[in-house]
Specification:
Number of strands: 28
Structural class: alpha+beta
């Protein structure tokens, strides 16, 4: 009360008991709890801690209306996710924790990345608070002539992802419909650009809302299933066994074998086909089309277990992909005995992640060149405009030749079109699909396998269009309620919806792809840019040069990749970027140019470009921004 002076409003709490009584109507605390906080004679200022945090604006206004002396409010920030459950397991969430501010010695809230990209890039995303330092009297008034120092706050970095929001919405919509219809335990979908490795969509169901962190299904676990959970892949692994057989000269499609069962070497264990009895004596090509485990077991006799293990390593299995999540799993490739290795060849025993399957599939779709999957396109410091990180397509090796890749695609396409094929449900009108179905048993808490049509993990690893693959889509559905349909039915409904809608969104014209001549690209790196441009245009390929330099530093697609007549090839050179005429360009080509030229492209609308804010021929500096209307 000594602070109260005539003619001056009090700046302290005058009546502690009455103040506590009034505040108890608004705070989640009793009158006695509030009074105990206020009644601390040895302290000139107190904070309400958890009782006083996260107040709504409405509650703040009501307290202010009470005109209580000495009650002061401080604003705080809160992590907010405007898109709700959108890509929630990929993005993750940030939780709040209370820490002491080193400058003010007061407690404040900070957000801490808890999972996903939020956790991996926590320090970059967080930013730092500003603060004010000055000498004042005990009422808070600045002393005359005192030092007054202000440190401005610094925003956390902005991160741009490779996600295509529309494709992600296609995925989420398809998963929601499948969940309502089949109520599986879990589902996961990954969509990737096979030519770059960029992840265009990644989702799982049930999802969660990072604002509330309430799971939609209590059985769901807090892991990104695409990157951090391991599965037995089932017959999707046969894609890579087939590729190994072709690459090593051990594929004899017309040779015959007796299907049904196979006895493991030096073992009493019997490998059986999924129908139990097989289909009599058939060719190995038909065996792959029918997803015969016995066909793969016989193929392994020719390939050899040591050779097969070498190719699994080339395809990236048993290793992290380098995806930016702190909990990425490696999977376990069992390599101690022949029985486990043979089982691995048809998708049992060993474990992988869905993202590893997608990464390996890029080599099949991309003429033997395996691309590293990535999700962060760029990171920018908004305080300075500086580009902190810029990711470009990265090759992860060439496990197979272009010829092998093309042959694998043709055979996988036949699993969709052949009367014997297990993937007939995955046929899409107007687009040719290639892929492999998978059915895997799930290990229960007792360490044994669950059994029954509604106890399996059903999946499909596919690409389209076969002639020039633009998308890879992986779908897995765990323990669906089938109600008389096959396990592939819910998987196919999700896959077809996502693939067809996404191809149409990217303006992939199936008629042009089928009719166009296929051209294998040479290696132009180190060559003169203008000479390469002339050579490409003579072959009907539009060449886009991203810089003013004379020598080529990089190209996309890579050497050995097959493109079609009328497509675009991007040539990266040094120097400033000269803008092309973007009219008619699709999202896929815009993303490629943006990455190679190291600029930022802001888009409005969907479809093809109809307008750009800078004229063709303009020079743009590195990290510059272009606005386009689609």
């Amino acid at each position: 009360e000594s602070l109260t002076q005539p003619g001056r409003e009090p700046v302290h709490v005058v009546n502690k008991r009455e103040t506590a009584r009034i505040l108890s109507n608004y705070l989640n605390a009793t009158e006695d709890e509030i009074y105990k906080i206020l009644d601390q004679p040895d302290r000139k200022q107190v904070e309400f801690g958890a009782f006083g945090r996260k107040l709504s604006h409405e509650t703040k206004t009501l307290i202010e209306a009470e005109e209580l002396p000495g009650i002061i409010f401080f604003s705080d920030t809160k992590r907010y996710y405007p898109n709700g459950s959108f890509a929630s397991y990929l993005i993750g969430y940030a939780r709040e924790e209370e820490i002491k501010d080193e400058h003010t010695n007061k407690y404040k809230l900070r957000t801490v990345g808890e999972m996903g990209l939020e956790a991996y890039y926590d320090k970059l995303l967080e930013g730092t608070d500003g603060y004010e330092n000055y000498e004042a009297d005990r009422r808070g008034y600045l002393l005359p002539g005192a030092t007054h120092f202000i440190e401005e706050p610094r925003h956390g970095f902005n991160m741009k992802l490779t996600l295509a929001k529309t494709i992600q919405n296609f995925v989420d919509d398809a998963l929601l419909r499948a969940y309502e219809k089949y109520t599986p335990e879990e589902m996961v979908v990954v969509v990737a650009d096979p030519k770059t490795g960029g992840i265009l969509a990644m989702s799982q169901s049930p999802a969660f809302n990072p604002n509330t962190r309430e799971e939609l299904n209590s059985q769901s676990i807090w892991l990104n299933q695409a990157t951090s959970d391991t599965i037995e892949p089932g017959s999707t692994m046969k894609v890579f066994t087939l590729a190994t057989a072709i690459e090593t000269g051990n594929w004899t499609p017309n040779s015959q074998y007796k299907s049904g069962q196979y006895r493991m070497p030096n073992s009493m264990r019997i490998v059986r086909d999924h129908n139990g009895v097989g289909w009599g004596t058939i060719s190995f090509l038909e065996g792959i089309q029918r997803s015969s485990n016995v066909a793969v077991a016989y193929m392994m006799e020719r390939i050899g277990t040591d050779t097969f293990l070498q190719y699994l390593e080339k395809f990236g299995f048993g290793q992290k992909t380098g995806f930016p999540v702190s909990e990425e799993a490696t999977g376990v490739i069992l390599n101690k005995n022949k029985q486990d290795i043979i089982s691995t060849a048809f998708g049992q025993a060993s474990t992988v992640t869905p993202l590893q399957l997608v990464q390996g599939m890029t080599a099949i779709a991309n003429d033997g060149v395996m691309m590293k999957p990535y999700i962060v396109e760029s990171i920018v410091d908004p305080n300075t405009g500086e580009m902190i990180e810029k990711n470009e397509p990265t090759e992860q090796g060439t496990p197979i030749s272009p010829e092998t890749a093309e042959q694998v695609r043709t055979i996988l396409a036949s699993t969709v079109t052949s009367p014997a094929g297990t993937a007939k449900q995955f046929k899409i009108d107007n687009y040719n699909v290639a892929g492999k179905t998978g059915t895997a048993q799930i290990v229960n808490e007792n360490g044994t396998y669950d059994w029954g049509a509604e106890e399996f993990l059903y999946s499909f690893l596919g690409m389209a269009p076969v002639e020039n693959p633009q998308l890879i889509v992986y779908v897995a559905v765990q323990k669906p309620k089938l109600d008389g349909v096959t396990g592939s039915t819910p998987v196919s409904e999700v896959f077809k919806s996502v693939m067809e809608n996404s191809l149409k969104y990217l303006n992939i014209d199936p008629a042009n792809i089928e009719a166009a001549e296929k051209i294998e690209l040479e290696n132009y790196v180190g060559s003169a840019a203008q000479e390469a441009k002339v050579q490409l245009e003579e072959r009907g390929i539009e060449a886009i040069i991203t810089g003013e330099g004379g020598r080529i530093e990089g190209q996309y697609p890579a050497a050995g990749t097959t493109v079609v007549e009328g497509d675009r090839v991007f040539i990266k050179t040094a120097g400033t970027t000269i803008l092309p005429d973007f009219t008619g360009w699709s999202l896929r080509h815009l993303k490629t140019f943006e990455q190679l030229a190291n600029i930022r492209i802001e888009l409005e609308g969907v479809g093809y470009v109809i307008e750009q804010d800078m004229k063709a021929g303009s020079v743009i500096v590195e990290n510059g921004v272009i606005h386009l209307q689609l």
